Amino acid sequence: QVHLVESGGGLVQPGDSLRLSCAASGRTANTYSMGWSRQAPGEEREFVASWRWTDGKTYYSDSVKGRFTISRDNARNTLSLQMNSLKPEDTAVYYCTSNNAGVRYWGQGTQVTVSS
Fold it and tell me: pLDDT, tens digit, for every residue of 77-94?
């Protein structure tokens, strides 16, 4: 079992930056990848970014590429998402996700609201 806890969400204005963190605990030894997804009201959950543990390769959705950066802190077993130049359409609940031995785990989510 893997436990994921997100933090760092909040209310910001368009153009601002925000940094999300995800702390992983439990049976993390078999982690294949970790990442972030988001879900806006009335929308399907969508992929945002991911980090592949085996080779450090990162992936981003087209909507966030160039504005968001995913990073990993090995010592603290945490995953971060630096979000710059935020737009109102980035408003959503952001979920941390982990793929461990073929099983996907999700955090409880953290709300990000971008509004003037």
Answer: 899 999 999 999 999 999
